[in-house]
């Protein structure tokens, strides 16, 4: 069966779970051709990865890399270098590998992204070109065989900024049990940038996150995670995840501080969870705009901020106005 036929068949079977979805795919760098090639995604992911520890399936890094500030290419290249430095020590060990969720990737940044040696060797990407700015998800090659579906769902009438959500579904094999057949669960990883600003944004964000929350545990999905810039700028945003039955990984981290699973290792408290408002300081107060939220049989632990105080080397240019977030992903009963 051709790739397009396979994708069409799977879209038909999942249309109720992903309304208005635009089928997407992955691209893999082909060293022999010196180019990025379309990677076929099977409707039933092949199982070539085993997980012996459900407490360490993989890790997530989510980061809004700021498309609007000057020197976008230099800043983006610095962000990639920082991610390589952060992730390289873990490449020689077994999973967890790290999925990277980027927001506000400027269209001009695809050239440095796709020419980066670290990305070429260790990652596959959901996009190799986009208009304006957008979300991009980078999946480790070690996890790519577990992917069963990739799609991008626009928020349609609930956005004036052309925002959407990028979904990647994984079929995760569970550790074998002597008394049962091998099992797997399907997890959905979502990458989003909710509507900005007050006014229309205040009414749009609950609808946008509500639509995502429904799809994180839709039919056939055992658990889901959404990470990204939630633009929590209004009082009504503060308890929005709770109202949608989403678990906020940062708040869970605060509860676990006394059990040596602390947040940022040395910091506690809601204010230390702020991810925006320091790089640089501005007339608006610092806020916890970026979040990792989970639902169903998936959890996030050991959450930390990344990119704190990070500047382009040899300059006073902030790499991004946002801090990123990193966490380990676990299966929950």
From TrEMBL:
This is Endonuclease/exonuclease/phosphatase. GO terms for molecular function: 5'-tyrosyl-DNA phosphodiesterase activity; endonuclease activity; metal ion binding; single-stranded DNA binding. Residues 258-279 are annotated as: Disordered. It is found in: Nucleus, PML body. It comes from Mycena maculata. PANTHER family: TRAF AND TNF RECEPTOR-ASSOCIATED PROTEIN, TYROSYL-DNA PHOSPHODIESTERASE 2. It comes from the Eukaryota. GO terms for cellular component: cytoplasm. Residues 61-322 form the Endonuclease/exonuclease/phosphatase domain. One of its GO terms (biological process) is double-strand break repair. Keywords: DNA damage, DNA repair, Endonuclease, Hydrolase, Magnesium, Metal-binding, Nuclease, Nucleus. The lineage of its organism: Eukaryota, Fungi, Dikarya, Basidiomycota, Agaricomycotina. Transmembrane segments: none annotated. InterPro entries: Endo/exonu/phosph_ase_sf (IPR036691), Endo/exonuclease/phosphatase (IPR005135), TDP2-like (IPR051547). Pfam families: Exo_endo_phos. The keyword rRNA processing does not apply. Its cofactor is Mn(2+); Mg(2+).
């Amino acid at each position: 069966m051709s790739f397009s036929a396979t994708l069409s068949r799977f879209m038909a079977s999942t249309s109720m779970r992903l309304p208005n979805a635009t089928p997407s795919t992955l691209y893999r760098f082909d060293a022999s051709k010196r180019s990025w090639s379309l990677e076929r995604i099977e409707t039933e992911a092949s199982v070539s990865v085993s997980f012996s520890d459900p407490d360490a399936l993989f890790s997530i890094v989510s980061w809004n890399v700021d498309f609007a500030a000057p020197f976008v290419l230099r800043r983006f290249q610095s962000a990639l270098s920082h991610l390589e430095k952060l992730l390289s020590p873990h490449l020689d060990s077994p999973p967890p590998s790290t999925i990277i969720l980027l927001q506000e990737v400027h269209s001009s940044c695809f050239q440095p992204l796709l020419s980066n040696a670290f990305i070429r060797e260790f990652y596959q990407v959901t996009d190799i070109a986009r208009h304006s700015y957008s979300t991009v998800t980078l999946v480790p090659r070690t996890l790519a065989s577990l992917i069963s579906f990739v799609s991008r769902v626009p928020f349609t009438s609930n956005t004036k900024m052309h925002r959407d959500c990028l979904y990647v579904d994984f079929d995760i094999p569970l550790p074998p049990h002597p008394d049962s057949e091998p099992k797997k669960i399907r997890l959905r990883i979502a990458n989003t940038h909710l509507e900005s600003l007050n006014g229309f944004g205040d009414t749009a964000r609950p609808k946008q996150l509500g639509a995502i929350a429904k799809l994180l545990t839709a039919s056939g999905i055992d658990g889901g995670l959404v990470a990204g810039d939630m633009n929590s700028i209004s009082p009504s945003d503060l308890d929005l995840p709770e109202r949608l039955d989403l678990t906020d990984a940062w708040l869970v981290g605060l509860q676990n501080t006394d059990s040596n699973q602390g947040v940022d290792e040395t910091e506690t408290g809601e204010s230390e969870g702020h991810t925006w408002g320091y790089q640089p300081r501005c007339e608006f107060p610092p806020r916890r705009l970026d979040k990792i939220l989970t639902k169903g049989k998936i959890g996030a632990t050991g959450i930390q901020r990344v990119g704190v105080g990070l500047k382009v080397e040899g300059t006073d240019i902030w790499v991004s106005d946002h801090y990123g977030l990193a966490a380990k992903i676990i299966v929950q009963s």
